[in-house]
Amino acid sequence: MASIRIYRIKDVCGLTGLKPSTIYKLIRENSFPKGIHLTARSTGWPSTLVEDWISSRISGGNK
Q: What is the pLDDT of residue 2?
């Protein structure tokens, strides 16, 4: 089993090529996975969710 990393917004931006504002807009539109609250003021995204989203974009899906 591959280890799951938690990506912060900067990492997610680097992987997707999107800006934070675009990512949060997509979350509001239910077009990008919601992050998990790590603390009261920080959010992270499990690597599997981000990588699955990227894969769905590549394959042409609308997840």
A: 72
